[in-house]
Amino acid sequence: MLLGVDVGGTFTDAVLVDDRSTLYTAKVPSTPAQQSLAVLEAVRLVLERAGASPGDVGRFSHGMTVATNALLQGRTAPTALIATEGFTDVIELGRQARVHLYDLCQAAPAPLVPAARRFAAPERMGPEGELRALDIPSARRLVERVAQSAPAAVAVSLLHSYADPSHERLLGALIVELLPAAHLSLSCDLVGTFREYERTATTVVDAALSPLLEAYLRRLSSDAAQLGLREPQIMQSSGGLTDLDRAAGHAALTVLSGPAGGVGGALLLAQLAGEPDLLCFDMGGTSCDVCVIEAFEVSETADRVIAGRPLSLPALDIHTVGAGGGSIAWRDAGGALRVGPASAGAVPGPACYGRGGTAPTVTDANLLLGRLLEDSPLAGDVTLDRSAAERAVSVLAAELGLDVLNCAEGIVRVAEAEMLGALRVMTLERGIDPRSFALMPFGGAGPLHAAALAGELGISRVLCPRAAGVLSALGLAAAAPRRDVSRTVMLSGDSLCRERLAAERDALVAEACGGLADDATRVRVRHELRYRGQSFELSVEEELEPADGHGRPLGPAELRGAFARAHRLRYGYSDDAAEVELVNMRASAWGGSPALRLGATLAGEPPQRELRGVVFDGTQLETTVLRGELAAGTIVTGPTLYALADSTLLVPPGWSGQVDAQGTVQLRRMESG
Fold it and tell me: Are 447 and 464 in contact (CB under 8 A)?
């Protein structure tokens, strides 16, 4: 059996898939103070529902928000930084680019390492080799000074260590000797590419988060072992699994661990449904994550910014906004209705959860509009209290001068506007026409808002998975191991030749494949090129034979031609007279992934049907409410409210569709008349 467990800000989801592709799910409230408690409870519950024991689980995959939340909340370990003499303040200087160009009072986040814990290494490495030697006595004295500051973690990022890491290795060995209890992050082990600020900032984030993540993962592994489970494999931001030791040692690899699982689940469903182009959004209790699947591929980036801090590591291209079911609605200083980014989270949760929450949230608004069912508990046996939701929303309604239902509908529309902005960032702002895509909602709250968002974007088809509420956990169960290696090569002119390309590529591929426990099933190399003098690169990819990573590599002429095409597509022109420079090479290797197929929903007990009033555009309409499993081929016509096991699908008037063989509800917007 395959087990996937995803920890979210509000709920923790578990999915178990057996060898007959039967799917078992569980959803329990998250336990922010000790997240492993919710993980083990979700595992216990899903095993009980499957009638299975821990020994039946062949692989345990885990995604979580531990590192993300710690970075967002500033809960990091006391960290020291060793940098080349004269460059210790690079993490504070940063770049001159401003996110808010005309807001002169906008400040960048404070460095994770204060000035008192930044130490200068008396050395200098150039891109071509050593310029100033680092002798052992000087290095030892430096590390002794670092030890006196009593850090829990040490980050080492020296100039040009991507080209020659010998000085970093020397300092690393001394830190292990003199500070054995401190976590160590070397930039040469984490980021193999140039750009000093981003490389140093990434290494500092890694060092500052790793002690916290390691403590969590070690405890989870110990508790899982006592339960009889295998050691968990951890989802990386890149969408691939890694072993627990590597994740615990490099927390920066897991900052987007949870959202990456959702992308994996969406990609699995896209392949099963034969839909190559999907626009996906994952709306949970705390946030909404948006990604684009194009030709069955998810775009990636090696330059992310999380909480104002750059991360130069491979990551799926996901855009996140603070709009979830638990997002709090409020009135701003100008009298406007706002939603998020603050969230009621799992504790105390929305007011309607009856756990002490008093702030109005999106979930409270949906309950008042009839879009959630008071007599149908949410996953995790959360019973909804309509009167508590009404009390919370009525306070805000009075502040805004609205009646309660108008305020509730306003809350939903503002939240949808936030999500719509994220969807437009990933499509229209990048030259992608969303009308040619199908929209796939998931997360516990996503299917409630899918049709409204599709209508705003001109999208005519919506695909709602049967497991929408736990799709991130399903993506974890279906994920493959992955290892990434990158290196700055700076090849141009005569040095950009076929022999040098093959040598660099083969070395990277061998290192990436060597980092997998089993043989690679897929190998990809990305070449990042630019015209000489440009500041940013464009990627050219090649797929290699997984058997040995060899084959006929792309030569200089093919690379230049592919780069010219990419440049014309992005910028509208190419320059055949300009010199092309190969800046970075990145190799990725994947291990084997399980061949999952979700079993069809068999015809059994017919779903329960009843009629209730649901508010659409200010008018209450008589709406069909469906509960229970829908067999393949079942027709669904709006207005309908379908209570799935872990989420709720709202089908407004003007939409209809049917259930496919995997249990996915495929909706289409009907033509006028």
Answer: yes
Domain range annotation of the chain = 482-590, 608-669
Task: Count CB-CB contacts under 10 A for residue 286.
Answer: 27
Q: Please report where in the chains the tokens 């999208």 appear, as a residue.
A: 459
End-to-end CA distance of the chain: 49
- C-alpha–C-alpha distance, residues 106 and 33, integer Å: 32
CA geometry: angle 161, 167, 171, nearest 5 deg: 120
Q: What is the per-residue DSSP string for 130-186?
A: EEE---HHHHHHHHHHHHHT--SEEEEE-TTTTT--HHHHHHHHHHHHH-TTSEEEE
- Strand segments, DSSP code E, in 307-414 are 309-311, 315-316, 319-321, 327-331, 337-343
Closest listed residue to residue 67, CA positions, set 306, 394, 390, 232: 306
Identify the CA nearest to 204 among candidates 110, 133, 297, 126. Answer: 110
pLDDT tops 80 at residue 596: no
Is residue 21 a contact partner of residue 598, using CB atoms and an 8 Å limit? yes
Both structure tokens of 235: 């989802």
Tell whether the model's pLDDT for residue 65 goes beyond 70: yes
Q: Write the CB contacts of 215 (distance below 8 Å, at least 6 apart in sequence).
A: none
State mean pLDDT over 254-274.
89
Confidence band, pLDDT 50/70/90 cuts, at residue 653: very high
Distances (CA, A) of 381 to 367, 471, 645: 16, 19, 11
Give the SS3 label for residue 634: coil
User: Residue 348 in contact with residue 411, Cβ under 8 Å?
Assistant: no
| Res 253: pLDDT | 95
SS3 (DSSP) at 598: coil
Assigned token pair, 358? 């008093």
* Cβ-contact 227, 60 below 8 angstroms: no
Confidence of residue 101 (pLDDT cuts 50, 70, 90): confident
At 397 the pLDDT is: 95
pLDDT of residue 379: 61
- Residues 6 or more apart from 31 whose CB is under 8 A from it? 12, 37, 38, 346
Which of 486, 518, 514, 664 has the alpha carbon at shortest distance from 593? 518
3-state helix, strand, coil in the chain (%, to 5): 35, 30, 35
Structure tokens at 279: 């626009």
Mean pLDDT of 265-270: 90
Q: Is the peptide bond before 180 cis (omega within 30 degrees of 0)?
A: no
Q: Give the separation between CA 490 and CA 194, rounded to whole angstroms.
A: 10
Distance of CA 179 to the CA centre of its chain: 33
| Confidence at 37, pLDDT banded by 50, 70, 90 | very high
User: b or e along 289-303 (b: 16 or more beta carbons within 10 Å of the residue's beta carbon)?
Assistant: bbbbbeeeebebebe
State pLDDT tens for residues 161-183: 999 999 999 999 999 999 999 99
d(CA 384, CA 34): 25
Residues present in the chain in total? 673
Its CATH architecture, for the domain 482-590, is 2-Layer Sandwich (3.30)
Of 453, 469, 466, the C-alpha closest to 655 is 453
Spatial separation of the C-alpha atoms in residues 114 and 350, rounded to whole Å: 37
Q: Rounded mean pLDDT of 628-640? A: 88
Question: pLDDT class for 121, splitting at 50, 70, 90?
Answer: very high
Estimate to the nearest angstrom the gap between the alpha carbon of 456 and the chain centroid.
Answer: 25
